[in-house]
Amino acid sequence: MARRRPREVRAARPARRAPRVERDEGRYGAKRHPHGARAYPGVRRVREVDGLSRRVLAEIDRLERTRNYLFPGAVTDAVLLWQDFARRPAATHWSVKDADLEFYCCGDPFAARELLTVVEGALSRPAARALRAVLAAADARWAW
User: Fold this and answer.
1) How far is CA 61 from the centre of its chain?
2) How many helices, marked H, and strands, marked E, lie in the chain?
3) What pLDDT, in 10s, does the model give residues 45-89?
4) Helices 74-87 and 54-66 sit at what angle, rounded to 10 degrees?
5) Which pLDDT value is given to residue 11?
6) Which residue in 141, 118, 100 sits closest to 131, CA to CA?
7) pLDDT band at 123; cut points 50, 70, 90
8) How far, in Å, CA of 61 to CA of 45, rounded?
9) Per-residue pLDDT for 116 more than 90?
10) If residue 141 lies in a helix (H) or strand (E), which one and from where to where?
């Protein structure tokens, strides 16, 4: 029996094409999905924290899906909240540190930092080390 050439084999198969991606061209441009749908089903848009590798982000994502005290994006939200709070001018910190405040508007940065401490304990050693390295600059700015 004669062997078929690769181009003959490919010609017999139907062509596989990637799903069409709708471009976001602003207010008057291309049509967008009403709920901000993803271009590819099953692919989530993830906010990333600068300084963390893909491997660490994947481990954090797995942790967020398997632990009942976390939700998808909780660790990223906590890191960004803590970094934003630590970047504020020192004049705003004295009143926050001593006062008994409820952070209804934008989240409690101290609760976020405690959550990050718990997450550090749940991660593997290399991933926890990488997360601690990202948080070190914010921790240095704030007398923790």
Assistant:
1) 8
2) 6, 0
3) 557 788 899 999 999 999 999 998 898 889 999 999 999 888 887
4) 120
5) 78
6) 118
7) very high
8) 12
9) yes
10) helix 125-141
Residue identified by tokens 């939200």 is 77
Structure tokens at 50: 């600068």
Q: Is the pLDDT of residue 25 over 60?
A: no
- Would you say 134 and 104 are in contact if contact means Cβ atoms under 8 Å apart? no
Tokens of 129: 């080390």
d(CA 39, CA 34): 13
Q: Using the predicted structure, report yes or no on whether residue 128 has a pLDDT greater than 70.
A: yes
Q: Which pLDDT does position 32 carry in this prediction?
A: 54
Residue 74, both tokens: 């909780």
Q: Is the pTM of this model over 0.70?
A: no
Sign of the alpha-carbon torsion through 86, 89, 90, 91: negative
Strand spans (E) along 104-143: none
Under a CB-based contact definition with an 8 Å cutoff, are residues 76 and 48 in contact?
yes
Long-range (24+ apart) CB contacts under 8 A made by 140-144 are 141/86, 141/87, 142/85, 142/86, 142/93, 144/113
